[in-house]
Amino acid sequence: xxxDKLTVLTIKHLKDKxxxxxxxxxxxxxxxxxxxxxxxxxxKHHFKFLTYLTSKDIADLVMELEPEMQIEVLxxxxxxRSSKIMDIMDNDDLADLLSEIxxxxxxxxxxxxxxxxxxxxxxxxxxxxxxxxxxxxxEFVWIRHYYTVRxxxxxxxxxxxxxxxxxxxxxxxxxxxxxxxxSYRDLLLADMDEKIxxxxxxxxxxxxxxxxxxxxxxxxxxxxxxxxxxxxxxxxLKGIVTVDDVIDVFMDEAQEDIxxxxxxxxxxxxxxxxxxxxxxxxxWLVLLLFIGLISxxxxxxxxxxxxxxxxxxxxxxMIAGMTGNTGTQSLAxxxxxxxxxxxxxxxxxxxxxxxxxxxxxxxxxxxLLVFLIAMFWQxxxxxxxxxxxxxxxxxxxxxxxxxxxxILFRVGLDPAVASGPLITTLNDIFSLLIYFxxxxxxxxxxx
Amino acid sequence: xxxDKLTVLTIKHLKDKxxxxxxxxxxxxxxxxxxxxxxxxxxKHHFKFLTYLTSKDIADLVMELEPEMQIEVLxxxxxxRSSKIMDIMDNDDLADLLSEIxxxxxxxxxxxxxxxxxxxxxxxxxxxxxxxxxxxxxEFVWIRHYYTVRxxxxxxxxxxxxxxxxxxxxxxxxxxxxxxxxSYRDLLLADMDEKIxxxxxxxxxxxxxxxxxxxxxxxxxxxxxxxxxxxxxxxxLKGIVTVDDVIDVFMDEAQEDIxxxxxxxxxxxxxxxxxxxxxxxxxWLVLLLFIGLISxxxxxxxxxxxxxxxxxxxxxxMIAGMTGNTGTQSLAxxxxxxxxxxxxxxxxxxxxxxxxxxxxxxxxxxxLLVFLIAMFWQxxxxxxxxxxxxxxxxxxxxxxxxxxxxILFRVGLDPAVASGPLITTLNDIFSLLIYFxxxxxxxxxxx
Lengths: 447, 447
Hints:
The structure is a homodimer.
Chain A: H1 3-15, H2 19-27, H3 31-40, H4 46-52, H5 55-64, H6 67-88, H7 91-98, H8 103-112, H9 115-125, H10 132-135, E1 142-144, H11 149-158, E2 168-172, E3 178-183, H12 184-189, H13 196-199, E4 207-208, H14 213-223, E5 227-231, E6 237-242, H15 243-262, H16 274-301, H17 303-308, H18 312-340, H19 345-377, H20 380-410, H21 420-441, H22 443-446
Parallel strand pairs in A: 1-2, 4-5
Antiparallel strand pairs in A: 2-3, 5-6
């Protein structure tokens, strides 16, 4: 059913105070659709809608919503009801939610929750976000290597509720160290009396808790895993990261790359309000405005050259623009490549060398083109000035787009600093310096 | 083990003609690592390495390689051995590979393959790429609703080899129509004598074969599925798309977005040769070069204004740059948003209205800033010219970055056309027209 129709039906049920019909309807919905419905519903109906839902449904709903709306729901429900919801939420989602809540409120929620739930989630919250520990869930089922398949299946059945998104059972030894893994498929294929020892996979690939989330995502993608276990320094199993969380990581990383290329500021989507979007975009724009004024200062210092050969101005926007364009192209290759490639010295040096050659090739092609245009329009020397300038600025622009993000990446700076607009603005400055520099030095041939 | 060490060891085994040791080593490797090893190995060793591998290992290897290297492997092996490898490859990977091969060769391979394998893969190849049909595999296990769990597990066991990456059994009726789905987890939790009818999930979400791959990916991401069944118009089950393929779709889509923002040309990564990379980048650059020359023509037509107020030049790079910057920011929001949002009329109009307001806000802030700077540097009227120009160009730049990609998207044009550099170059032209237009109309106050 369409969200629109669902919304109308929901409002009808709310007005008729028909709790049963509403619950029957929401029971059929996937959590994602439930969240879509909640977003579509006018705010004045939110409270009543929530009171009509079962705790299970509210938990499903909250796990799908974005942080601001999650907090809205909690506030509408009050501490007591909220803590009940929190008890049934997945621990990793709950940890993310709680990390958004103010210090004081957090205490209240944690103490209202069930004791062991509260402890587990606090443990999860202790890991930095964007690491394996930060995105893992600690809801998994472990078994012993001396179990039979029957034992394993029994244990699995008794923890069935915990294991909604889980596809492997993990085998640990007496010290809780991870020693193997068995998939549901293995269990189905085995005889009930076989030993776990004989069917388990021993060479388990696991990651330490502090591993960067991007690395975890790469691992799962490369090996087509459904989940990867997370261990501490003693190889003790702490949790698992599942493939659905990894898809979200990939989406976030792509988003970050886009931000790098556009300096568009964090978290602007179709729904962001104009004032908020402007507020997030303005810092970059104001910074670029001042850097852009440097270009003016450069022009100012070449005033003599400009006044003597006004025709120079006409190629200025093209040269500055082209330098920015090739820089953006290189930046895109680097930014995207850093996600999927190793970043050892050899790879990086080879990349820089490759981009240098690219700069020369495109510099020669484009330089020759404008040389011909400028020559026929003005003079041979004028063509030389414009052509050589474009050759030089394209090489420099290409290198700037390659080297600047790599340096920032190496020194561990926020790579958003190496944004497309910044590279473009810097390349504006480089290109003006080169263009008018060459023109000034060849001035006596030009006039 | 590191790829470097593995490479050295492999070369040693090859030189010692120690086939057994090599096979023991490769058997331990995940397909991804095997492919990494093959890439790292100098080309002169490739042939011998391949002859030492088992057919199973070669199939795993080929499925992980990029198209050019896949074809290299096939050529080294010859038709007969290659067709044996193809028989054991996953059908969806094989279909992708065969679609890269020239018409004539294709015939040879297909006739050398086993008859039914060849038929199945030809069927898969008939679906357009980038659709559900194009990315699905037809290796799945179906069961009947009247089966018991025991029957289902028996059937599953006898097709175990087929089901490496598969996590559900699909239930079909006598007309092969899809009527339900059962996960491995459901089978483990159920009693052996229960009927599939009683434990299966009826409201299966499926997609038609012609569904865009991006939609399939969204579906799997939204509902945290591991796979989604693909059906034809009669609801007959044709294949399934699995979550690991969906991750690749997300990576590809992100790559496409990056290309849009940078006009960087298709398929340039760290390994692309300089000549190839230049060849792919140049068409865009040459196009932008000519568009950039239009800026020069505009300046030419304002020559009088320029000669009378030379100071106008100094703010020119900043104004043109800022217009490009805000355009790029808007473009990023639109390009990324189109992936995750619905694109109905209401959403789009709201977005355009939002960006218009954003343009006004940042226009006022930045315009006021340069008004002050220009006023103190030159005069009040000069400040007005620069400030008003920046306000106007920022609004227009923002709108261009929003509306142009949306129009291209709506008319179904290749959205790569709406690239960041193109928007920037167009905005250059708009900004010059506005800046010198305003300056010319206020000329008598300026001098």
